[in-house]
Amino acid sequence: MTDSPAHVLSDAELDLLELVLGGAVPPSALLAALPGLPSDVLLTDAENTPLARLTRTGADGVVLEPLKPLAAAIGPQWDAAVRRPAREVRTDLASGPDGNALGLLVTEVPTAEESGTAAALAAGSAAVLLLVPAARRAPEPGAVGAPGLVRATLALAGTLAERTGARVTTVVVPWSGPAGTDLHDVAASYGAVRVETLAAHRTPATAERVAALPHVRDEAVRALYPPASAAEVVRAASGGHRQGTVVFFTGLSGSGKSTVARALAAELEDDGLGTTLLDGDEVRHHLSKGLGFDRESRETNVERIGYVAALVAKHGGTAVAAPIAPFAAGRAKVRALAEEAGARFVLVHVSTPLEVCEARDRKGFYARARAGEIADFTGISSPYEEPDDAELVIDTSVVSVDAAVDAVRAHLRAAG
């Protein structure tokens, strides 16, 4: 397995892989989305975890061998009750009394009008699938993201079941809009016989009101003030600035810091905070490409992460970083960069014991380090200097991801 070339999947490609593994689209969709791959390639995530092996068989044939589960995060869109593979949902519907399941694509937060529209569309259907396209990538600023869309859809599901008596099932569809793949076809693969996009039934009047929402405040200001005063109020509001934050996770490989950091970033984004995730492995692929793993290179990598995080926070954003950052001097530089930018700095030491990290060994690095195949590996052949200045200490061997995220958020709230 280790001799095969690897391709690191983007968030959009991970969504497609999840669809393929769940039976929503054929493996050939990966070939269309990933042209130029070798005939035998490992598909990995940004943490270098081997997820699947893709092998070409002939001109158009492809075999996809699952290797390890895709990493999950927290939030309602990751709840196993709604994030189910297409083949499972399809089988569940086929075993029911109704063979004419309606699929409603909920691509936007439903309006009050669309609650009635959904009930009308569902008339006569014993089973209704509410399908929520949810991308791994963050939404555009100001847009409702996957967590909010799922919460709104679950509320609609309850209302719809009450009004129609139908069996209503909410399903999250990992979706980033891959070329050559139609969302209606994907919905059909989940077992929907008839597919409708709920927002497509929005009346022109409602569509116009929704589109005008971002400008409602400005219009109210202009109605309240004379032109010169209104211009100053609008200018002040657009230039509003809050203190930025850098949340910096440090810990051994396999400690769970990346998992917690990703979950935290998603939760903060859902709260409406502009959040940038700087994960150690992803930074290595881009910002620090070409650096080695000797002490000097590691310090340079951490300093680069700190510099970018400080820039994000300087402009009022929230940066969440998750490198190993094994040396106290490097972490001190990052703290100084953040504080010089006027940002709040929170160091989180993910203190999961070495033996637990090594037992997890999702990437196989510890085994290779023990065998002498990897030099300067933190915790084995290179030291990890435990911080004595961390604002929070979390051990993921005794604390769940949800609880760890809650602890960091509680600290941020207490800090203002």
Give a verbal description of the structure:
Residues 243-395 form the APS kinase domain. Pathway: Sulfur metabolism; hydrogen sulfide biosynthesis; sulfite from sulfate: step 2/3. It holds the Pfam family APS_kinase. Its EC number is 2.7.1.25. GO terms for molecular function: adenylylsulfate kinase activity; ATP binding; sulfate adenylyltransferase (ATP) activity. By secondary structure, the protein is an alpha/beta fold. The chain has 4 domains: 6-66, no CATH class; 76-202, 3-Layer(aba) Sandwich (Rossmann fold); 207-238, no CATH class; 245-414, 3-Layer(aba) Sandwich (Rossmann fold), CATH 3.40.50.300. The protein has 16 helices and 13 strands. It has helices spanning 11-21, 28-33, 86-94, 112-121, 146-164, 183-189, 204-212, 216-224, 227-238, 257-270, 280-285, 295-314, 328-340, 354-360, 365-370, 401-414, and strands at residues 6-8, 40-44, 50-57, 61-66, 102-105, 127-134, 167-174, 194-197, 245-251, 275-279, 318-322, 344-350, 392-394. The strands form 3 sheets. The chain has a 5-stranded parallel beta sheet, sandwiched between helices. Strand 5, helix 4 and strand 6 form a beta-alpha-beta unit. Helix 10 (257-270) crosses helix 16. The longest helix is centred in the last third of the chain and has 20 residues, at 295-314. It is globular. The relative contact order is 0.11. The model has no long low-confidence stretch (mean pLDDT 89).
